[in-house]
Design brief:
By secondary structure, the protein is mainly α. The chain has 20 helices and 2 strands. It has helices spanning about 5-15, 20-30, 35-40, 55-105, 110-140, 140-170, 175-195, 205-210, 210-220, 230-245, 265-280, 285-295, 305-325, 330-355, 370-390, 395-400, 410-440, 440-460, 470-480, 490-515; strands at about 45, 50. Helix 13 crosses helix 15.
Amino acid sequence: MGIPTNHKAVLLATFIAFGFLFGYDIGVISGCLIMEDFVDRFGEVGADGVAFLSSSRQSIITSLLSAGTFVGALAQAFTSDRFGRRGSILIWSAVFTVGTAIQTATVRSIVQITIGRFIAGLGVGALSAIVPLYNGETAPKAMRGMLLVLYQLQIIMGIFISYIIDLGTHYIHGSASWRIPVGLQMLWGLFLLSGIFFLPESPRHLLGTGKGAEARRVVAELNSLPQDDPVVIDIIEELEFGIRVENDGGKATWLECFSTRNQLWKRTINGMMLQFIQQLNGQNFYYYYGDTFFKSAGTQLDPYAIQSILGGVSVVGTVPALYLIEAWGRRNSLLTGSVMEAVCALIAGLVGHYTLAPNGTPADQLTKRNRQGGDTLIAFAVLHVFSFSVFWGPTPWVYLGESFPLRVRPKAIALGSATNWLWNFLLSFFAPRIAEKIGPLILLIFFGMLTFGYVYVWLFIPETKGLSLEEVDEMYRSGVKPWNSSDWRPSEKHIHDKAGTTTEVREVKEKDEDESA
């Protein structure tokens, strides 16, 4: 029996997790909104004759991407089943690239640039659902969590790189200041488009569509083993058994995601709830209002430098998650993150409310109390963003990618991703208005959500670390309590029954292939 090696799986996942394409698109627009040429082209002219970008226009330009991602996350479920995971990545990468081209070619039409944002959002939303789906079905189970965290890391890297590029180009006079950072997205999209031709199809999808020989070849290639190696045969047999059980009952529907069969309703709601809680963690508030907080502390940093600092902290925070997601598990990561972020949100919200000077106060008029309060808020803002990147940033995506059977996986992941982007849209649209009314006290809303998140995870989220996708199915059927799930193990009887059943399936398929030949 050969010993499986995973370097090919790592290379594959590293490429397909070229998630900084998505992160870059999310982060690049915030810097453009305050560039002089961008404001002159897409803003309004005030009574004093100076162009400005109203809060309503900023909300529309920013939130249209999230509106597109919501639609795309749902739409990919249709292409994933019909064209396969690999084909869907190709399709939606092309959509993203087209949307980027429309934005870059805009001259002065706010309608054109928002349409481009929406179209690019379709690609971002679809790919945000397909990539966890693809990695969850392709990666070896011992590496699945780490590779899905790598996907999150590259998203954060994309945001950080977009901030650095904005920092470098905002000094340029003319449209190049924003066209360069926006247009670079086409390069990332074309890179993904070119590489997709070398990616294999998901072996689970291949088996589900009757392409057993090709599935064996892919599994052997990803594990660097010959096709007749016992390890490859065992993996194929396990997949065949899972598919046979999942496909009993005909074609899956959207309503089946909420059926009582194998606790699917609970798994779907868990996936959606984790995405909902993630968006209300409060970290996005710091990206939007870090400038105000830093200035209240007396810093002379400009908005681009502030964004770069927060982006860098996010990148640093995601690195340890590559290890902790497997060492601590999904459940402990979420519980720990809830506590750390809730403490940060509570302290930052109260300190900001009671000690910060009013927005716009000149630096030379700040009191010692204002500066101390600002320093405290900055420290907890950085810790909050760091904690999110370690725990709540990647873990909900990992959980989403490994919780569903093949039969409903595309649709269930689509519902989870769409929930994420729906709340991302609502936050980007309404957060400026809420913060304008209550200021730093908005962080207490996030404190309440994080407290709720801790309770929800404790009561409803089981541990899925180290389990194959088929074993996750068995765990939900067993009815184990989430707080006891860390000690749960697959039953030996289930494994023996599976081996016997799948051997029979394999023999029948091989016989059919010989007869057809």
